[in-house]
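Here is an idea for our session: we take a single protein and study its fold together. To get us started, please write out a protein record for me. Once you have written the record down, we can walk along the chain together.
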Amino acid sequence: MIPISWYLILAAVLFLIGVLGFFVKRNIIALLLSVEIMLNAVNLTFVAFSSQRGQISGQIFVFFVLVVAAAEAAVGLALVIAMFRNRESLNVDRSNLLKW
């Protein structure tokens, strides 16, 4: 059996990759992918603790996190399409204005 510390280390590495991608990348789609990586790292932690304790509550939290991630992706991609149609760019630096 794989110890829980390995899962936690993997989750920490995934979360750091997501944080680095969020702060380094300038493309909105890359930012959305970085947020998804961070959410999946949290899900991995929930599943690891749920498996260790033999309870299902962690897996239920994962379900809710996946629902929020799906909603975030749908809204985010709709905003990306709208922004690309108006600005013709997905660079975050060029989309800091609320006025079109």
